[in-house]
Design brief:
Layout: H1 3-12, H2 17-34, H3 44-63, H4 68-93, H5 98-112, H6 116-140, H7 147-169, H8 174-180, H9 182-186
Helix pairs in contact: 1-2, 4-5, 4-7, 4-8, 5-6, 6-7
Length: 187
């Protein structure tokens, strides 16, 4: 095996295994046939073309039709677990009133029992109330609002909006519970 062939084989490792199994020898033959005699390193344009091709195939694999079922399942898990994680986070921070705690429990119950639209509606109300309370508390603070507090508030508000959005857009969040298992989620 020549240095050039060994280097091309190394570059072809950027491609997914299945693609390499089907096409590596053919691609290698084309690359070797196009190389002038005595060439020991791949041309920069060949390296760029191989990198672009490998990236395109990997992106198609991650977001193509074959992977849609996996993405759907992942989003169902997020829709099932997200409200519970936010509820636990609120409790851990101590930023929760009785009403917001009950809303969080209600969202988890609605999502886990297959009432998606009700869970989404309550999640949006939860997000608005919690976000408004956090912003009002920060604005009324006598010490002002530090950069760290603003970043923390943005992250928390973003998380609430994300959960509400996922509950709005993901059908059957209840299946997310069965994908993970109630025991594992609660643990």
């Amino acid at each position: 095996m020549s240095d050039l062939e060994r280097r091309y084989r190394g570059l072809l490792r950027w491609y997914p295994r299945g693609h390499r199994e089907r096409h590596e020898e053919e691609m290698l033959s084309v690359l070797m046939a196009a190389a002038p005699p005595g060439q020991s390193r791949p041309e920069p344009r060949d390296v760029l073309d191989l990198a672009k091709g490998a990236a395109a195939i990997r992106v198609r694999g991650a977001f193509g039709p074959e992977s849609m079922a996996l993405w759907r399942e992942a989003m169902r898990v997020v829709a099932a677990v997200g409200p519970l994680v936010l509820l636990a986070y609120q409790i851990q921070l101590g930023f929760i009133s009785g009403e917001l705690f009950l809303m969080g429990v209600l969202i988890v119950f609605l999502a886990w029992t297959g009432r998606r639209w009700s869970a989404a509606a309550v999640a949006w109300i939860w997000a608005v109330l919690f976000s408004g309370g956090m912003v009002a508390t920060a604005m009324l603070s006598a010490t002002g609002v530090s950069w760290e507090t603003r970043v923390t508030l943005s992250g928390i508000v973003g998380a609430f909006v994300l959960v509400a959005t996922v509950l709005t857009g993901v059908p059957q969040p209840r299946q997310g519970v069965s994908l993970v298992g109630r025991g594992r989620i609660l643990a």
